[in-house]
Batch of 2 targets.
Target 1
Amino acid sequence: MTETILVQDLSEDQARAELARLAQILLRANDQYHAKDAPEISDAEYDRLKRRNAEIELRFPDLKRQDSPSEMVGARPADGFTKVTHAVAMMSLGNAFDAADVADFDRSVRKYLGLGADASLSYTAEPKIDGLSLSLRYERGALVQAATRGDGQVGENVTENALNIQGIPHHIENAPAILEVRGEVYMSHRDFDALNARQAETGGKSFANPRNAAAGSLRQLDARITRSRPLGFFAYAWGELSEPLSDTQMGAIRRLGDFGFDTNALTQVCDTTDQLLAHYRLIEEQRATLGYDIDGVVYKVDDLALQSRLGFRSTTPRWAIAHKFPAELAWTRLEGIDIQVGRTGALSPVARLHPVTVGGVVVSNATLHNEDYIAGRNAKGGEIRDGKDIRIGDWVQVYRAGDVIPKVADVDLSKRPDNAVAYDFPTRCPECGSDAIREEGDAVRRCTGGLICPAQAVEKLKHFVSRKAFDIDGLGARQVEAFYVDPDLPVKTPADIFTLQKRDAANLNKLANRKGWGVQSAANLWAAIEEKRAIPLGRLLFALGIRHLGEAASNLIATHYGSWEAFERAITAAADRTGPEWEELLGIDGVGEVMAQTLVASFAQQAERQSIDALVAQLDVQDATKPKTEGSPVAGLTVVFTGTLEKMTRAEAKARAEALGAKVSGSVSKKTDILIAGPGAGSKAKKAAELGVRTLDEDGWLQLITPA
Ligand code: IVH
């Protein structure tokens, strides 16, 4: 029976037999589908078999049949892309906006590595392509999978579409057995203009910019559409490799070029930050004539051994940074100011603008940040924009950079109308009427209504279902807004989402009979909700929408505590902000005092805690996976560093220990397993000796953690 064998394990004979079997089933299913007969297999099964067929054809291109199902015209569209877990996470980049940020980056790299200001250190500099990133997996030289970035951990399988992109080789000669090539898919200006012209002729939708067009084209369920839209691909990085490509970034890029990928000709090695900045200016000068969009220049440490020592923060490498081009600007009139109330109660002023084009996009709303920003003065009396306030009717300067929300940057007082009056920032929430107050040191005025404020509750729910949180198919911002006010099927808190189906079953006015819904879409929604009952701890924490608790910190906290039970116990015990649980929370790299305070306060607040408990009762919270520490001699141990380290900096030592599954603590206690004491160690070494804690010097520690 070939049908149960994994594609990667099929022999050639088995593959031939399996392709024949799949062709028979799929061709028949296709006929049935088009004849509108009762289909014998479900859509999901059909898609699964079709993917299996495509994967086998990829592995054994010579066995592809004349009547291959992958060539079937008018085949059923897939109902979505399958998910792919990246073997190595796809990271994003930190940003630099000026020469000072670049100097800071260089300093931090040197500091981490313990290199002096004069030690030689080379970087590569290359354009930052404004497209979407793609990871291509080759096994024994054959392209077996193409995946989008997704959330960095899990992307979408777009293999069939990637096969239609020129510049993505289907086969590579002399490649490592496993090779994941990463780079950017983009659309050239010429192809973008032609596509939009074609779309206009055929009444199709036009795209706002080449990046959206590239994303829309790559993420087509019908791979033939991808084929009809020319896309390019620049290779600039890699994921899993069975052997290194080179010793240097530049060398690795050359190898990728030798394999047949386009690599960017403006990639260059620079030996000083001055050279980096000079190359940045050169690329900036050429920007308008490149023929494709770029939004900055990426700098990477050239030496790959140093890259690997530097490693990653939670979502960005320490060894690379994106130096962004300055934002685009325009002047227009401020027609009004609206106040939006966010999920944490923040009253955010939004400028309503006379529509104006900024960098190719029409802008009619922009953020005004907060009340001080409008007043031109911060709480301490310091000036913002030289103290100029902003009034309705003023001429204001708007800027946008990349994908971020446009901002109001400046005001032209010479054009101020005579009747313009200073803006009175509301002190009551415009949504629920509760007092809106400013806490000391907070630039933001916040509604005190908590969950009784409908705006806060709805925004919390929207955040809860958003892509990086629960990401429930068919339950987006629009549906959440509708359910919130639904008299028969209300969703007021996240827990209500998970009782929807049960409550609907008990109602007369069934969701399936309502406008905009049907039996199928309601069933799909119940299935999508069920699917998310099992949720990884990090996602759950992020989904709670607690102030300051972003995606990265949520994941750090999740990996630290491992399980919901351990986390909940610790957070509850930390409520009084003293004691070992509080110290432990503060000790997590990436968790600061402010974040820790808001976190424990949220869990200590009765209404909020009730809402969280009710939610968790509905879920199956999955433990966070700790970094792979199999065979690590220090996994699970608590270690403390003290004194001077000579072989590496403290930050690097800490990061390495954590990567090996050790917990790094700042103080010696009974719980300490190992103290690593360098020269100059004082009281900690003494305490360790008293407690009988194992003590090593730096070499002893390195010996312990370096595999023999
Ligand atoms: S390197 C581990 N190089 O920018 C770092 N990224 O803001 C891997 N991008 O997600 C990325 N051009 O999609 C790198 N020359 C370049 C790039 C580039 C564009 C994108 C990439 C990444 C995003 C981060």
Target 2
Amino acid sequence: MFVQAQTQRGPIGKNGMVVTAHPDASKIGLEILKKGGNAYDAAVAVQFALAVCYPAAGNIGGGGFMVYRHADGTIGALDYREKAPAKAHRDMYLDKGGKVIKNLSRYGHLAAGVPGAVDAMLKVHQRFGKLPFKEVIQPSIDLAARGVVLTDKEAQRLNKSRNAFFDHNTQPPYPLVRNDKTPFKKGDVTIYTDLAKTLERIRDKGRDGFYAGKTADLIVKEMKAGGGIISKEDLQNYSAVWRIPVAGTYKGYRIISMCPPSAGGIVLLQMLKMVEPYDLSKMGWQTPKTVQLMVEAERRSYADRAKYLGDSDFYPVPLHNLLDSAYLKQRMKDFSFDKAGSSTKTKEGKWGSHSEETTHFSIVDKAGNAVSITTTLNSGYGSYVMVSGAGFLLNNEMDDFSVKPGVPNIYGLVGNEANSIAPGKRMLSSMTPTIIEKNGKLKMVVGTPGGSTITTSVFQTILNVLEHNMTMQEAVNAPRFHHQWLPDEVFVENKALSQKTRQILRKLGYMIRPRSPIGRVEGILVLPQGKLEGGADRRGDDTALGY
Ligand code: GLY
């Protein structure tokens, strides 16, 4: 049981709740709900709003995953992960000697996959939306034209990224940089004139406002100027795909999460199944035994991820074997509380220091429809490449492929054949948008950014609520730790794991590595009387708004 002097609850709503990484996006989502839109209208509005007010991860030049649950219990998922362009090939980031060319898959024009966000939002709206599309996208157009008031965190992030923006663009990417060197500061207003016009084209022409016509021309022109390979055909051929989410049980709860090409859902379900036989509540929150058990589950799942997971449209992912209870029981057979496990059989991955700027939002409407979306450009501001004249950033998602077997990506994750590059293939992800049911009723909506730490952050947040009795707000605030098989280290946030717990784990053979904040979880918990508690992560500018 988690013990805290005073219970901290997030905002409570009776009729709906929107939790996002930015106050402007949460306001826009809430307004859509209040004027009669459903959770899907609000989700579409929030995706476009984040593209304006949260350029580090919000996007129209990237992709993501949506897991949904209608009020009647129907579930589904939309895969809008970026795709490798037709001209991409397996060894495109290697030199003649077969060595990885530093940063080629990470920054600049060649790092970008074909964006999926706009096609996805149009599909969501067309299938499930209630309000006219124009009403749903207009608040973001107005925000872009009026300008976004910078928060302190966003101003600092932009200042830190100034050199990278100049390095990776052929034109200065205004307004994310300034011509003079005056730094951005809290309260400054950034006006996105070109982006407003791009959003207007999407409003007026739908798909053709992005994947054809002027916007497509600008993307292809940008590619040519900077040596990228996304073509008009790539844009025309892009299509988001409706998929069946993965689902499993944990102590009577039903966990619904994202299927490949995200590893998130499978890894989450594996980890939950591996710890299920234990009474974590009794073992206590972040005690040595609880941490050890969770770390060993994480180690085994992330090893499977590296070997077996990739885009299931291209590679036969052994989904049923990976989620088989007998297999997972077997997987934990060599686990012992007496000593640390070991990942040394494979070359150790390196841990990158890049910001893990994906973003997640959770929405529940009055009827009980629930949307869990994680969306990204990959690392902060993606490839740093802004499409000149169109005002938006392109992703650097190509780095989520395994550019060479065993060579770690930006997050230190290694991969193999399952996640090699091929034209039209989607790169493996860790994104874990998740919805939980109890007795056939909605219980929780949750997800987070954080690169490779996404799935372990969702794992911990779920256990914080289900096992350690935390409120949604406490569960997202709680300090976190992370293990990903390689490197064989337990990464810990500042306040995670007491000194005593760290000492005991070190003695057992665990390498404890302090690091910067892990994840920014956005969750909604359905309380016993049906009210909704929003939990917005205090690590950022995140905001939960209910009514
Ligand atoms: N780009 C981070 C992820 O998809 O896992």
